[in-house]
Amino acid sequence: MKLIRLHALATAALAIWLSSVVASGFAAAITFPAMKKLDVRIPAYEAFDAEHWKIAGGKVGWAVFSASDIVQPTMALIAAVCLLLIRPRDCSPRWGAIARLFFVAAGIALFLWYAAMIRFPMEHTLDSFWTALDAARYDDARRFQSDFDALHPASSRTLSAIAITILLALLASLITAPKPRAAEPSR
Fold it and tell me: pLDDT, tens digit, for every residue of 8-33?
């Protein structure tokens, strides 16, 4: 019974992890075109002659991605702990349990790389952009916006790779089930 609960919890954590990544991508895909279509202008930044819809969309999008960046490691930890407590030999098919462990480990590695090499530099650049914008240092703001835009493709690719990896882990989890334990002999 314990193995079934661990398996269910790990599978749920993988589903939430995947949903978090996919939902943040959907949110950005919906928010930015909507802001562009509305041709949003922000009165506080009227002197900044750049596309204001990107600023408005960025404020919303960054909040969504920040929430996802809390959900992802939390669900990764829950899934990893549960899966480490389930031995592959206690699952059927065994190869599915091994594949699931591999994909979860790969997803965690990708997330750690994303956090260190992409997310933190993007956050620093975006904070610098908003600070420069608020201080009316528009040349600095343009430079920080350019730096942020240069990191964006790597971010999208890495988050896509995380989503694919966790989808594969989830699929492996759905075809893998803990083997029932043999009943204790009665005395």
Answer: 999 999 999 999 999 999 999 999 99
